[in-house]
């Protein structure tokens, strides 16, 4: 990668995966997989384009739009669209690279991709956001399709934006097809899709808790970061299963429980309304014993916790915060966000796992723990192909089954390829990386991408 500009987020994602492959017996037993990794680390296609749109004063504005079509070995490119001022090629390559192996772990026929633009929806009127979405999709529509590339929402792209983009695609291509997921329920969307990533995260961690002999969710103190879709539904499902949620956060600070305080379903519902208005949590007042702390993430301010769920954005748990979570008694850390922990933080968790064995913290990477969202997107694609809609109970049961499969895939693959001492919990980060990578590599080999 020395002949391209530095792409720190992508390099981090690549190094995290490559290091776990190197530190396992995979390459020793299958040296040819080194070639597969080299090929898989380069996107099949990167599309970059300008987006011209008109603001409310009639002035023309311009943004950069992207779609990274990383791998189609397992199916159409699949991954979200992110609208945020920080969007650049490095971030989208990291997200697309992670998406390949995340999608593989779902067991569904989906490749990996990611896209978006450096457009900031905050401070924009509804009409400005709509005009941007229309302009963005007019260009993107040339490169996607139900059997080619099926984007979804991500940061800055809710069901409303998906609707505007789908309508533009339909008019530009004269096609009504399942080209986007996260659609409205009356025109091709799936039940449980908004909840899927958060619910799936809780189902996955439930298997971690059970396997580790720590009972179930009842009575667990849970720290959650973020306050968007993933954090909201993770909090609601954790509360439903008997846990106590003690934090949420946004880009400006953290909402943290004091004393016996805790976050209630009523708090979460109120926060949903705040997020729809694109306002900060610092405007929220609660009777549930919560305080807002400006300029911090929650990890060092939540007191004793059993479970930590980063659900905001990448690199939101540092080495120091990881050490703080261990000091606070955290036994389970799972990423609801993509690459939520820095490499240094992961090393802290993994070192603790090896040293303290069954009494240690157990860490799960986002590509496994948060794959529920894209899994239900895949189920939405299946429903679109059949021109029908499943019930909430059907989708939820399929989601539970997928998360269980993803957990045991990572667990059993770690047992097969990673040496462990007696009593040591298997490395879910290594096992998930290897399981996803091997599935993609085999498909690439069968299709002649390497030999």
From TrEMBL:
Instruction: Give the molecular function GO annotations.
Output: glutamate dehydrogenase (NADP+) activity; nucleotide binding
Ranges in a coiled coil: none
Q: Name one Pfam family in it.
A: ELFV_dehydrog_N
Please name the Gene3D superfamilies in this protein's record: Glutamate Dehydrogenase, chain A, domain 3, Leucine Dehydrogenase, chain A, domain 1, NAD(P)-binding Rossmann-like Domain
The text of the family note is:
Belongs to the Glu/Leu/Phe/Val dehydrogenases family.
Q: Which residues bind substrate?
A: 78, 99, 102, 153, 377
Catalyzes what? L-glutamate + NADP(+) + H2O = 2-oxoglutarate + NH4(+) + NADPH + H(+)
Subunit relationships: Homohexamer.
Got a GO cellular component term for this one? cytosol
Kindly list the residues the record flags as site (Important for catalysis).
154
Q: Where is the Glutamate/phenylalanine/leucine/valine/L-tryptophan dehydrogenase C-terminal domain?
A: 190-448
Q: Name one GO biological process term.
A: glutamate biosynthetic process
Q: Where does NAD(+) bind?
A: 197, 229
Domain of life, per the record?
Eukaryota
CDD domains for this protein: NAD_bind_2_Glu_DH (cd05313)
This chain belongs to the protein called: Glutamate dehydrogenase
Record keywords, A-Z: Acetylation, NAD, NADP, Nucleotide-binding, Oxidoreductase
**Where, by residue number, is the active site?**
114 (proton donor)
Per the UniProt entry, what species is this protein from, by scientific name? Answer: Lasiosphaeria miniovina
């Amino acid at each position: 990668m020395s002949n391209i500009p530095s792409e720190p987020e992508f390099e981090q994602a690549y190094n995290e995966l490559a290091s776990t492959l190197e530190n396992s017996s995979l390459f020793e037993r299958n040296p040819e997989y080194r070639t597969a990794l080299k090929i898989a680390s380069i996107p099949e296609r990167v599309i970059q384009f300008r987006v011209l749109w008109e603001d409310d004063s009639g002035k023309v504005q311009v943004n950069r739009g992207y779609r990274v079509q990383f791998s189609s070995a397992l199916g159409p490119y699949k991954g979200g669209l992110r609208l945020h001022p920080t969007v650049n090629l490095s971030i989208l390559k990291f997200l697309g690279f992670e998406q390949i192996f995340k999608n593989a772990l779902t067991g569904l026929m989906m490749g990996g991709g990611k896209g978006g633009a450096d457009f900031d929806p905050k401070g924009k009127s509804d009409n400005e956001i709509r005009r941007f979405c229309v302009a963005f999709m007019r260009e993107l529509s040339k490169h996607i399709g139900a059997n080619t590339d099926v984007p979804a929402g991500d940061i800055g792209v809710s069901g409303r934006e998906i609707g505007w983009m789908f309508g533009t695609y339909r008019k530009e291509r004269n096609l009504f097809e399942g080209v986007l997921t996260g659609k409205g329920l009356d025109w091709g969307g799936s039940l449980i899709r908004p909840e899927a990533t958060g619910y799936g995260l809780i189902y996955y961690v439930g298997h971690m808790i059970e396997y580790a002999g720590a009972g179930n969710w009842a009575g667990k103190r849970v720290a959650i970061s973020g306050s968007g879709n993933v954090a909201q539904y993770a909090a609601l499902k954790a509360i439903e299963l008997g846990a106590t949620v003690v934090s949420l956060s946004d880009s400006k600070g953290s909402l943290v429980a004091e004393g016996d305080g805790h976050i209630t379903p009523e708090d979460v519902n109120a926060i949903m309304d705040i997020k729809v208005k694109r306002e900060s949590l610092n405007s929220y007042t609660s009777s549930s014993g919560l305080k807002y702390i400006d300029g911090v993430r929650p990890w060092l301010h939540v007191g004793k916790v059993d479970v930590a769920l980063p659900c905001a954005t990448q690199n939101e748990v540092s080495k120091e915060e990881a050490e703080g979570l261990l000091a606070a008694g955290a036994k389970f850390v799972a990423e609801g966000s993509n690459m939520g922990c820095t490499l240094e933080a992961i090393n802290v968790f993994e070192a603790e796992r090896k040293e303290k064995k069954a009494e240690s913290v157990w860490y799960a990477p986002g590509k496994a723990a948060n794959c529920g969202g894209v899994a239900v997107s895949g189920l939405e694609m299946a429903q679109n192909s059949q021109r029908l809609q499943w019930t909430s109970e059907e989708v939820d049961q399929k989601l539970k089954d997928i998360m269980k499969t993803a957990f045991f895939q990572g667990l059993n693959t770690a047992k097969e390829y990673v040496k462990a001492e007696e009593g040591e919990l298997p490395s879910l980060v290594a096992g998930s990386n290897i399981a996803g990578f091997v599935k993609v590599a085999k498909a690439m080999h069968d299709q002649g991408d390497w030999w």
